[in-house]
């Protein structure tokens, strides 16, 4: 494509400043205190899509936060790319661990990002990556190089489970009709190792409550004579893994897809340094399921993790007490073929069955979603691969990710189209963590690569 690099060069500062303005709005979908800001962000996205050359943009109200829909249809005979992204962000807590305020973006250099990285909540997940698509669109329309039809669907509830988007997709199949779905909401292996995400894990998220005595008790007067819910809960949780770190829930692995030795050998070719991995996290050893490598453990294998646990006295000093209740939030990452609702049921049945007499257990399911895998011989993958080859000078590596974007499997089910995951973030960009950032180089590289995807996808679709 002509002039993409010079176009970026000419508009560099504006591209950065527009993203910075977007990052200043705290669009936290999980916390009702930020409601106004989330709605405001939808307006800003709408304006940006109009400016980028969409002919028609609307804010589609839902029972929750709106979906911003935009399109430019140039010829019904040409293919249509549907771009998905999200404008909501995770809560910024714990605030005290940020080196600069989460909604006051600053650009700072890091070892991995010598050109600088934008530090702000949502910089990488997903405002920065979503906005690359808006700027790529601007480039294509401004220079008359848009080769096909485009639809944008940017939602505000990804971080809370995309419940309203699921309904929207089911009810708007004709409107959302497309030939391929394009998303930048994942990562790549390293700056010099471009990769395309070919798999996402599913998710089942539950909250558990263990109740012992009907009130908090003096731990001297009653200790040793009644079940302590915190002791019991931790023991129950510990029993969910065996000595080999296999999950002990009966039936949990029944539908897990086992990869062939050949597929595992192919995966193992991706560059990876265990030493660097440990160093980056300041750990002296990795930990996980016996018989699998680190990269297998975090992508093709299902897992169970406690995300939060509470109960009893956690204030200053010591209080001698046996709490009446203990709680935990638990997530299970799932692999293709495991059904999240079925796994949630298996968890519930098992967890209730291992509770000893003397406590009551409640399991409350939260959201969830199915995993996803996509083949590398599709036109979409080939187009993405060629695009990366042009801008990185080498072929990208297919990589299965451990994260989840549950809506992707619903897209396949309802819209019958494949999703191509062109992520430009790095694992070290600290998404969902304090000091989230996104490399300035990555941002521009994304803007440079995306238009080439459109070009090759259109060419390959017509050949
Ligand atoms: N963008 C992430 C998912 C992601 C990140 C996938 C990096 C692959 C690589 C997304 O916003 C996210 O955080 N998803 C949640 C699930 C959702 C239901 C809250 C997740 O994976 O925890
Ligand atoms: Mn995301
Ligand atoms: Mn996220």
From TrEMBL:
So which residues are the signal peptide here? none
Instruction: Enumerate the spans annotated as Peptidase M20 dimerisation domain.
Output: 199-357
An annotated Gene Ontology molecular function: dipeptidase activity
Q: Which Pfam families match?
A: M20_dimer, Peptidase_M20
Instruction: Report the EC code(s) recorded for this entry.
Output: 3.4.13.-
Q: Which CDD domains match?
A: M20_dipept_like
* Sorted UniProt keywords: Dipeptidase, Hydrolase, Metal-binding, Protease
Q: What domain of life is recorded for the organism? A: Bacteria
Its recorded name reads: Dipeptidase
Q: Which organism is it from?
A: Psychroserpens algicola
């Amino acid at each position: 494509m002509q002039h993409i690099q010079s176009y970026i060069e000419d508009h560099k500062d504006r591209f950065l400043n527009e993203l910075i303005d977007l990052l200043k709005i705290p669009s936290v979908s999980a916390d009702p205190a930020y409601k106004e800001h989330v709605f405001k962000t939808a307006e800003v996205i709408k304006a940006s899509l109009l400016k980028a050359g969409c002919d028609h943009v609307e804010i589609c109200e839902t029972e929750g936060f709106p979906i911003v829909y935009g399109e430019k249809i140039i010829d019904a005979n040409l293919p249509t790319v549907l771009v998905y992204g999200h404008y909501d962000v995770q809560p910024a807590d714990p605030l005290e661990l940020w080196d600069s305020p989460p909604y006051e973006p600053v650009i700072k250099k890091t070892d991995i990002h010598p050109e600088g990285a934008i530090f702000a909540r949502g910089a990488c997940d997903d405002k920065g990556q979503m906005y690359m698509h808006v700027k790529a669109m601007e480039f294509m329309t401004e220079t008359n190089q848009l080769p096909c039809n485009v639809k944008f669907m940017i939602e505000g509830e990804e971080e809370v489970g995309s419940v309203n988007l699921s309904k929207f997709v089911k009810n708007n199949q004709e409107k959302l009709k497309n030939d391929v779905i394009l998303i930048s909401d994942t990562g790549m292996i390293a700056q010099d190792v471009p990769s395309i995400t070919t798999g996402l894990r599913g998710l089942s998220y539950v909250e558990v409550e263990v109740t012992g005595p009907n009130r908090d008790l003096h731990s001297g007067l009653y200790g040793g004579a009644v079940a302590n819910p915190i002791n019991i809960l931790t023991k129950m949780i510990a029993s969910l893994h065996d000595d080999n770190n296999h999950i002990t829930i009966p039936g949990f692995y029944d539908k897990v897809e086992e990869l062939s030795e050949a597929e595992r050998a192919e995966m193992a070719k991706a560059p990876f340094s265990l030493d660097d991995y440990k160093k980056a996290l300041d750990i002296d050893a990795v930990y996980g399921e016996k018989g699998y490598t680190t990269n297998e453990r975090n992508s093709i294998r299902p897992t169970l993790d406690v995300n939060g646990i509470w109960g009893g006295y956690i204030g200053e000093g010591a209080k001698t007490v046996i709490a009446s209740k203990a709680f935990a939030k638990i997530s299970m990452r799932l692999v293709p073929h495991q059904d999240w609702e079925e796994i949630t049921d298996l968890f519930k049945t098992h967890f209730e069955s291992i509770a000893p007499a003397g406590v009551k257990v409640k399991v409350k399911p939260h959201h969830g979603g199915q995993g996803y895998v996509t083949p590398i011989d599709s036109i979409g993958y080939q187009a993405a691969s060629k695009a990366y080859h042009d801008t990185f000078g080498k072929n990208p590596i297919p990589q299965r990710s451990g994260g989840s974007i549950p809506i992707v499997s619903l897209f396949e089910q309802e819209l019958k189209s494949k999703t191509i995951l062109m992520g430009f973030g790095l694992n070290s960009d600290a998404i969902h963590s304090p000091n989230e950032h996104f490399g300035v180089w990555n941002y521009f590289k994304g803007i440079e690569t995306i238009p080439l995807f459109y070009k090759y996808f259109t060419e390959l679709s017509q050949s």
